[in-house]
Structure prediction request, 501 residues.
Amino acid sequence: MAKVNKKYEIWFLTGSQNLYGEETLKQVAEQSKLVLEQLQKNVSAPVDLVWKPVLKTPDAIRRQMLDASADDNCVGVITWMHTFSPAKMWIAGLDALQKPLLHLHTQANQSLPWATIDMDFMNLNQAAHGDREYAHMVSRMSIARKVVVGEPASKTVGSHVTAWAYATIGWNTSQNLKLARFGDNMRYVSVTDGDKVSAQMQFGMSIEQFGVNTLVDAVAKVSDSAAEALCEVYERDYDVVAELRKNGARHESLVYGAKIEIALRSILEAGDFNAFTSNFEDLGELRQLPGLAVQRLMADGYGFGGEGDWKTSALGAILKSMTPTGGGTSFMEDYTYHFGPGPALVLGAHMLEVCPTISGQKPRIEIHPLGIGGKEDPVRMVFTAKPAEGRVVCLVDLGDRFRMISNEIEIVDPTEDLPNLPVARAVWKPQPSLETSAEAWMLAGGSHHTVLTNSVTAEAIEDFARIAKVELVAIDESTEMRAFRKELQWSAAYHRLAERL
Ligand code: MN
Prediction:
């Protein structure tokens, strides 16, 4: 996949100035290293926080920002004004910075040494006003950033920085994202379509279309022995139903499913893609709609969207790269409702393509007919998502801009068994209630396709939206419709009048 599994760095920049003299600046450097050390202990994202020498002049600041912007490993920059660093010194550097910015407002000491404090101490620990001078300039330059306030060893500070660090990884994914579409958009469908040029300008993602024959030809070239070898992996890692197992009556269907996986994977790897789409209306000579293959590729971090839905696929790849190890993130669709008795619930699923990273048990590989598409019965993994707090997120194109919408959900065990449902599924209780959630979601123009995650935090998603300069509409336990309608109106005005702020 394109540049997803590399080593990520976040650079830690400390501001000061030469006025303080060598002795004090030495202390500044030592304390700054110590602050970073303490911060590091509570940052759990897979990034290296890299200390850089204290910045004291406009030239050094500009050079550091240019270097950060040019370095492919650097996904973000944290700044902290340990002492007073006059902010005109930062204008050229901030102007040059092309990476996400976090302003850490902290100081080296937690408590004031009341009994011994003197003017030397006061002059060394000046972030309280140094950071305000700096922040004024960042605001004046309208630079999007996250501000985190607190002592460096604080767990809260660490968790805010962690959320942002994951967002910088997501942004790096977005900037390098390559998506392969097999077939175009499902005929007549609106929300899955959109402006791919605008998406590339805003998010960096490149969305490219392939005729489905590219995949058909690649499947035809996969050898039986390679497919049989993959079937052995399936039998080892999943509960494969008897009819699909080696020597089972329908084993050949599993072999064909394995060929689709091998072919898809090789095309994606050769082209450095990290996301893809399919369209059941456009399968050419493919004998099955890709199901198991898509599920397995999603589990390996690939984004996916059905029916040509490149926006959900891209968002899936982004959120997967922001998913902590052991967490789950999947393509999802609001499928059908349970209005009661008991709490109102959403049953989410898709025709086949739900990612097993959200599963609560070992998936079963089964084969069943598919009501639409007119193809052979496709093989697929069947499982139920494990209970967890989570959220569903979508990205829609409103014509004049993109909008992200997220809804906090509680994934729950299904109220009863589902013996006749032949697809993977998730059952959830949306916040604040199904009624308000669905009303708000639809007023905001949200998609029926989403990315469901049980571990990318709401804060990380919010940080990502700020970095991407994309509108985010959040629906959660505090959503109340009268205020929500007004928020949409204000937000529309804001984004039309001042979209770059
Ligand atoms: Mn769909």
